[in-house]
Each structure stands twice: as C-alpha cells, then as structure tokens.
Amino acid sequence: MSELAKVTRLALRGMITFRGDVSSARVKKAIKAATGAAVPKVRSISGNRDGGVAWMSPDELLLMVPYGDVQNIIADLSKALVNDHVLIADVSDARAVFRVEGVEAAQVLARVCPVDLHKDSFDIGEIRRTRMAQVAAAFWRDETGFEVICFRSVADYVEALLQRAAQATPVGALGGR
Predict the structure, then answer these.
(1) Cα–Cα distance between 47 and 37 in angstroms, integer?
(2) How far are the Cα atoms of 15, 20, 54, 60, 74 from residue 84, in angstroms, in the given order?
(3) pLDDT tens across 89-144, in order?
(4) Alpha helix positions (H), 44-175
(5) Among candidate residues 155, 53, 54, the one with its CA nearest the CA of residue 98
(6) Is the pLDDT of residue 155 over 50?
(7) Tell me, what DSSP letter sits at residue 38?
(8) Which residue among 41, 89, 117, 177 is the one 20 to 30 A from 76 at the CA level?
(9) Burial of 114 (0-12, 13-18, 19+ CB in 10 A)
C-alpha cells in the first residue's frame, strides 16, 4: 500500500490565544507589532508559523510565534492593550502541531474531517476548526499541504489517525488521479 501523504509531528510552536475586539484599530496595530502579521479575514490565516495569525472566531485569534518569544510577546501585547478588554493566554504547551503534505494531503484529511477540501472550496490560507474523527482540531492549507493543530492530550491519537488515513488507497473524490 502506498503513502498518500507524509504526516509529521512538528516541534513545539509558540501559540497565544487572543480574545477581544479584533476589529479595533489599536488591537490590529498591537497584533501586527507583536507578530509581523496582520489580523486575517474570517476563516483565514496571515503570516507564517514564525509570525502568523489565525482567525479562530469573531473575537478570537491564534498567534503563532517562536516558542521562546511567547512571554515577551504576551507582555508587549498586555502593555499595548492595557485599557482594552482582552484575554491573552499562552497555549503553546497545550497544543500539538502536525504537517500533512503531498499531492494527496487533502485526501488524508477528507477521510477524517467533515470539511469539503476540494481546492475550489478550501483554498490556500484558509483555516477551519472542526472535528477530526472524535476530537477537536484546526487546520489550514498552504502551498504544499496542511498544518493541523490539536490538543496535546490527544496528539498520539491524532498522529495515529492521520498516519492510518495516509496509508489508504486514494478514492479520487477530490479530483486527484
């Protein structure tokens, strides 16, 4: 049986949950200064894993920064937004990140997530929060595959699930082969 995509568990990544008025000019300025990336559109990401921002809900963003910079970035954001009603929390150690890449990466995720992953429906830079089989997860598409985030407590389950889905025969439902 051939492998449809390569699944890799990535190293720890700095992740900060930010909740507040993400449409505020002051918040947008502080987020950009902290990460180098702009506040993204709905269901999108901006920047990259070393300085990225993911839209998680109308009042929630996930900031992705270098792991060692998390505490300084939280301090900077807290200082810049001292008069704003916000919640800023380090969730780095509570999350696991996986990389699913290859021509059939969408096939792998389509087997375990109730999301239309055809390129016409789910483009590069889009993010979804959803179920991955029995657990909560979020993922986004980039040029070569997907990044998947889940709770660290279910990381072994998610890794096994993705590895198993990657070993199946393609079904061609997403316009492949």
Answers:
(1) 5
(2) 21, 8, 20, 14, 14
(3) 999 999 999 999 998 999 999 999 999 999 899 999 999 999 999 999 999 999 99
(4) 70-80, 105-110, 155-166
(5) 155
(6) yes
(7) P
(8) 41
(9) exposed
